[in-house]
């Protein structure tokens, strides 16, 4: 492999890592963008298997853990207090319940992911165009909603609905953050509650994908050859996810989700035109 070819591959993977990292937290579907970029950059051969997706997903997970570290530390401390101590205050009880709700909401994704993994991984770029239109329409529906529910007001029904929405987002083009936030706001959550629940819900799913994907990395025959491009994409995904998540938090607080809806409509239509053969 000559120097020019090596540089070209590194730049392609850098771009893919930045794209995945930037699009992971915002409601425009990172998986859908990866499918489209693979076709545009002709990376089908280099990205055989799931190693790349697993690594950049792990990079995004690290960024989410950093951004929500205070919430995670509080939930961990109060969850342990609830389990280990007999004298349980309201804060410990509320946080333990929140943890239980996160676990319950994760179940639909695990079940659907196990059943449909082979079908989901084979989706074509043109199909992503149509699923992006669905994401755009969902975001448009909730653009003006103002919920009233805080963490302590949630019910099992609420979190199961959000969990089901996350399961549907396994399909590339259906944004995970978009689907969960849309569902959360439709059941009446406040914007900040919907935002926090959505990304705390991302953690167990992403962690599960990473753990289960270790075997795919080990079996990847080209992993050693592409180790440097993979590492660059991994670091790029961490950085891009961190800043995109901070940016999205500000947009979410202002209620400007309609702009993501416009984006999904435009890119979805372009994808249908470009990838229809």
Automatic annotation (TrEMBL):
It is found in: Cell membrane. Pfam families: BacA (PF02673). Its EC number is 3.6.1.27. The chain crosses the membrane at residues 47-68, 96-117, 123-142, 194-214, 226-245, 257-276. This is Undecaprenyl-diphosphatase. It catalyses: di-trans,octa-cis-undecaprenyl diphosphate + H2O = di-trans,octa-cis-undecaprenyl phosphate + phosphate + H(+). Catalyzes the dephosphorylation of undecaprenyl diphosphate (UPP). Confers resistance to bacitracin. Bacitracin is thought to be involved in the inhibition of peptidoglycan synthesis by sequestering undecaprenyl diphosphate, thereby reducing the pool of lipid carrier available. Belongs to the UppP family. The lineage of its organism: Bacteria, Bacillati, Bacillota, Bacilli, Bacillales. It is an enzyme of class 3 (hydrolase). The keyword Cell wall biogenesis/degradation applies. It is a multi-pass membrane protein. Its main location: membrane. Keywords: Antibiotic resistance, Cell membrane, Cell shape, Cell wall biogenesis/degradation, Hydrolase, Membrane, Peptidoglycan synthesis, Transmembrane, Transmembrane helix. One of its GO terms (biological process) is peptidoglycan biosynthetic process. GO terms for molecular function: undecaprenyl-diphosphatase activity. GO terms for cellular component: plasma membrane.
């Amino acid at each position: 492999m000559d120097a020019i070819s090596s540089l070209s591959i590194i730049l392609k993977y850098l771009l893919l890592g930045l794209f995945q990292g930037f699009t992971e937290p915002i409601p425009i579907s990172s998986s859908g963008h990866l499918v489209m970029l693979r076709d545009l950059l002709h990376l089908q051969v280099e990205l055989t298997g799931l190693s790349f997706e697993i690594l950049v997903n792990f990079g995004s997970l690290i960024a989410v853990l950093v951004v929500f570290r205070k919430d995670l530390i509080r939930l961990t401390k109060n969850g342990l207090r609830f389990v280990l101590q007999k004298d349980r205050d309201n804060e410990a009880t509320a946080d333990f319940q929140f943890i239980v709700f996160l676990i319950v909401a994760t179940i639909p994704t695990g079940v659907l992911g196990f059943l449909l993994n082979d079908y989901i991984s084979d989706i074509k770029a043109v199909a992503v165009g149509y699923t992006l239109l669905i994401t755009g329409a969902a975001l448009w529906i909730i653009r003006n909603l103002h919920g009233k529910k805080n963490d302590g007001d949630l019910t099992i029904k609420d979190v199961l609905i959000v969990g089901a929405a996350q399961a549907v987002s396994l399909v590339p083009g259906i944004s995970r953050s978009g689907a969960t936030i849309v569902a959360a706001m439709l059941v009446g959550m406040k914007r900040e509650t919907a935002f926090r629940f959505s990304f705390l819900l991302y953690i167990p799913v992403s962690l599960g994908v990473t753990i289960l994907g270790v075997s795919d990395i080990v079996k990847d025959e080209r992993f050693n050859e592409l180790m440097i491009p993979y590492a660059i994409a991994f670091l790029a995904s961490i950085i891009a996810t961190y800043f995109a998540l901070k940016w999205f938090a500000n947009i979410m607080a202002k209620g400007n989700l309609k702009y993501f809806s416009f984006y999904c409509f435009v890119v979805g239509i372009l994808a249908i035109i470009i990838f229809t053969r």
